[in-house]
Amino acid sequence: MGNLEVDKNKLERLSRVFHSSEEILFDDSSRFILMSDCHRGTGDWADTFAKNQNIFFVALNHYYKENYIYIELGDGDELWQNSKMCDIMREHFDSFWLMKDFIYYTVIMILQKEINRF
After folding, report:
1. DSSP label at residue 109
2. In the predicted model, is pLDDT for residue 17 greater than 90?
3. Which of 17, 41, 70, 81 is deepest in the core (most CB within 10 A)?
4. Domain boundaries, the chain
C-alpha cells in the first residue's frame, strides 16, 4: 500500500469523524477549559501525571463548580506505554470520577441549548 493510499484512508476517516461530530455553539459567555498532554499512566516512575494529579483534581473541581465545559485535546492517557486502560483508570480513579461528572454536565448543557432553540 503506497503512502498516497494510506493518506487517503486517513483523510476519509477524519472526514467521517468531522462530519458526525457534535457541534458545540459558543459565545462570549461560554466557559471552556482545554487540557492537553496530561499523560496519565499507571503510577510507576514513567507516569508524568502522577506528580500533578492533585493539582489537576483541584483545578478540575474548581472548573466544574464554575460550570465550565471540559475538553481534553489529546495525549490524556499513556496508551503507548501501557497496554491496559483499566490500569490507568485504577491509578487515577479520582480524576476519571470527576471527568465523568463533566461529561454528564456537558451533555445536559448541550441538550438544554438544543431544547431552547425550538
Report:
1. H
2. no
3. 41
4. 25-116
Torsion angles phi and psi, residue 81, rounded to 5: -95, -20
Q: How confident is the model at residue 103 (pLDDT cuts 50, 70, 90)?
A: confident
Mean pLDDT (the chain, rounded): 81
46: cell is 514513567
pTM as predicted? 0.66
Long-range Cβ pairs for the range 87-95 (8 Å, 24+)? 87/42, 88/40, 88/41, 88/42, 91/40, 91/41, 91/42, 91/43, 91/47, 91/50, 92/40, 92/49, 92/53, 94/53, 94/57, 95/40, 95/53, 95/56, 95/57, 95/60
Q: Torsions phi, psi of 63, nearest 5? A: -65, -35
User: Quick one: which of 64, 62, 60 has its CA closest to 49?
Assistant: 60
Distance of CA 8 to the CA centre of its chain: 26
CA dist., res. 40 & res. 31, Å (int): 24
